[in-house]
Structure prediction request, 628 residues.
Amino acid sequence: MNVSTRQLQAFIALTEQRSFTRAAALCHLSQPAFSALIAQLEEALGIRLFDRSTRHVEPTAEGREFEISARRVLTEFDAALAGVSDQLARRRGRVSIALLPSLAAGWLPQVLQAYSTRYPGIEIEVADVLSEACVDRVRSGRADFALAAIRADTPELQAEPFCSDGFHLVCPAGHPLTRLAEVEPQDVAAYPFIHMARTSSVRQYLDAALHPLQMQTLMEVEQLATAMGMVRAGLGISLMPALTLFHFAHPGLVIRPLHWAGLTRQIYLVRRRDRSLSLAAQSLYEQVLADPPETANAASTGGPADEGEMRAAY
Amino acid sequence: MNVSTRQLQAFIALTEQRSFTRAAALCHLSQPAFSALIAQLEEALGIRLFDRSTRHVEPTAEGREFEISARRVLTEFDAALAGVSDQLARRRGRVSIALLPSLAAGWLPQVLQAYSTRYPGIEIEVADVLSEACVDRVRSGRADFALAAIRADTPELQAEPFCSDGFHLVCPAGHPLTRLAEVEPQDVAAYPFIHMARTSSVRQYLDAALHPLQMQTLMEVEQLATAMGMVRAGLGISLMPALTLFHFAHPGLVIRPLHWAGLTRQIYLVRRRDRSLSLAAQSLYEQVLADPPETANAASTGGPADEGEMRAAY
DNA sequence: CGATCTTACGGGATTCGTAAACATA
DNA sequence: TATGTTTACGAATCCCGTAAGATCG
Prediction:
């Protein structure tokens, strides 16, 4: 025979009320049903918990001893339920997101601002790493989901397009290229070029888009900020996707949107297929979808006037 | 909807086995019934606890969080059941007995010796007080039951005869009374008498039995040991019930049984009517009934030869 | 005699196990 | 295709509430 929490609650109610009738009402039960509940508990435990006459109900010595145990059980029980309730209400939880450094620095803060204001109790872990590492973290379970430039659509992982990220020319103010109405690939190839490392998605998109063309690669750097410094110093020019442009918002630099076929970096929302998102992760996921970055693509729907103001925008 | 301990046990089994089939076997359930149990728990909590495919079962983030709460609940639950089991097995408990000082010193030790050897985990409280106080303690609930010389048969209390306690003459060796074949009340009245205090049951029995007779009361004392000292010093004689005679087992003293009508102290086993005995108390109660004192009455069934050896017996 | 707990009993909900359907590696 | 979970369904059980019975003050 089994002991249920309802029996414990009934037991506690009876120790407090010392009346079957009142305790039954408290438990929203008829008095006989309540009586049966107590009888079952006594039988299951094998001890008499109450001395009762028609006029008096009182716990036995064993009943008083059992009361403290029963209260502890119910306390833990309520705490467990409260814990679930906290998670449901997003008062507590943890979410881990992996995403490209550019997104992490430029766009994520505004998303997390809204998110953590709404759900102050949730711990957030951000992994600002390159696409490969992003996907690895999702695969291993260290991240709930990722924003990366790899279409990682494997049996294990699910990737859906999140946003596209148009490339821009970045060069010092007064550079000859700024005088052209439209910049073409061969124009760019004529000047010393600052590349990102080969592992970066920016580089991989560029290599693919410019493939036959011979570039004047002056150097490869790891960090966007370094590339910016090089360009500003007049060492070379570069092509960067819109989401990175906040790094290049300097008076001495000019940013010009490009419209080359195939040169649009795709950002994907990557998650595991077999594992559901935690409630906290689900909420952030929705926040992310509701608040996508305003990419160059979105800007390019406007006229040339808008594009000319990119310098001010970043 | 209600959450039951069976559901928690099923949940824990599934987190450990990571297979509905194996976990169901562990819970002695068919696999569909087990599946329903998990589904009910998830519905009751309002969260998905497991990500499952036909090939893989794994707790969600919420499931892992809930696991620690659930384990705590079940730990407390098991502890509560173990506590009951301990009480049932008399591995733990407490009993409080109130009884006359004479019984407490002379007879109780052998009873408690057997009792505490058998049930080493049980705490024992002994109140060695006079009959009035014994009954008070039972009435107030401070003692589980009592052995006293008052027939306290009220609506509240139940008293059953426990043993009878025949009176004996106590006098110095060589005292004139020792030369009589049979000592009668008027013989005793001829010598200085050492009385117990008026509140004692010994005194009350004596007063009732000797009523019209004029005694030579030399003094009244509280403690039996004091009375013994007085008699041994030759200050007077006394009459004492058998259960007190261990105090008077001295070479310089002689003890002679009496057979006066009405002069037999009755000891009663007193307990509350409305309150059941705790398991520990019940066990001691049975031990007490199984091991009654060997009173003078029992001895008086033997011949005079036995009686003459009383000096050696105590 | 009145208040209160226990027992009796019929209806309804829950739960179980078997069998079939379904899904995934 | 084989293994393992879910769904379907009939049967047994459990649980509840009403009503009658018992008991103590």
Remarks:
- Confidence is low (pLDDT under 50) at residues 296-314 of chain B.
- Chain B has three domains: 5-88, 93-161+266-292, 165-263.
- Residues 168 and 190 of chain B are 17 Å apart (CA to CA).
- Residues 29-33, 36-37, 53-56 of chain B lie near DNA strand C (CB under 10 Å from a C1').
